């Protein structure tokens, strides 16, 4: 008998089936992330900023792989586009692949000396994120930004290092177009 794999990726990047779990980050979960706190406090705290779905068949076993998709809602807090929190991996040398599924975005990466780089995410674009690089995605379009990811299961997440100073750049709307602002 030939059986189904048990899990599926839809055209819109949604995962369903066995070993799939999801999480949602709303504005109320992201205090201090956006630069304009007045705008942040004036918005609906229940507004979804992004959702993450994960296919996990191995827990956090060394050598295992995780597969996920992240969907960032279109929107802004003040002039700053909706984005993920961003993180270093807890095991710093763990790399990751991202690829664009739909929507328009920016991948922001930053090394431990706060050197940042930015690259456009579009449907089909492929992005290798080396170890020792914090990473975040930003939705600069009018539709949901959907990004696929694959990474080592033991990588873990370190949000603490970014909690104080954040990334050294921010992606904001300036004259109707995305611009990179320094946040040194
Ligand atoms: C995990 C991978 C993604 C992010 C997701 C949410 O290594 O990079 O699945 O977890 O895009 O971002 P964040 O920064 O809230 O974990
Ligand atoms: Zn990661």
From TrEMBL:
One of its GO terms (cellular component) is cytoplasm. Residues 24-176 form the Glucose-6-phosphate isomerase prokaryote domain. GO terms for molecular function: glucose-6-phosphate isomerase activity. Coiled coil: none annotated. Its EC number is 5.3.1.9. Pathway: Carbohydrate degradation; glycolysis; D-glyceraldehyde 3-phosphate and glycerone phosphate from D-glucose: step 2/4. CDD domains: cupin_PGI. It comes from the Bacteria. It catalyses: alpha-D-glucose 6-phosphate = beta-D-fructose 6-phosphate. It is an enzyme of class 5 (isomerase). Pfam families: GPI (PF06560). GO terms for biological process: gluconeogenesis; glycolytic process. Keywords: Gluconeogenesis, Glycolysis. The keyword Ribosomal protein does not apply. InterPro entries: G6P_isomerase_prok, RmlC-like_jellyroll, RmlC_Cupin_sf. Belongs to the archaeal-type GPI family. This is glucose-6-phosphate isomerase. The lineage of its organism: Bacteria, Bacillati, Bacillota, Bacilli, Bacillales.
């Amino acid at each position: 008998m030939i059986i189904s794999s048990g899990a599926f990726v839809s055209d819109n990047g949604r995962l369903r089936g066995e070993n799939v779990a999801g999480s949602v980050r709303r504005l109320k979960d992201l205090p201090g992330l956006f630069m304009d706190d007045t705008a942040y406090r004036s918005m609906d705290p229940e507004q979804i900023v992004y959702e993450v779905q994960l296919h996990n068949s191995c827990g956090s076993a060394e050598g295992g792989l995780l597969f996920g998709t992240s969907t960032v809602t279109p929107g802004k807090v003040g002039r700053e586009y909706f984005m993920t929190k961003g993180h270093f991996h807890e095991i710093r040398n763990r790399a990751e692949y991202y690829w664009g599924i739909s929507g328009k975005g920016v991948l922001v990466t930053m090394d431990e000396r706060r050197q940042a780089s930015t690259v456009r995410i579009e449907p089909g674009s492929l992005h290798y994120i080396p170890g020792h690089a914090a990473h975040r995605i930003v939705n600069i379009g009018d539709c949901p930004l959907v990004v696929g990811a694959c990474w080592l299961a033991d990588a873990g997440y370190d949000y603490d290092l970014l909690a104080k100073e954040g990334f050294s750049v921010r992606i904001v709307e300036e004259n109707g177009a995305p611009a990179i602002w320094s946040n040194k």
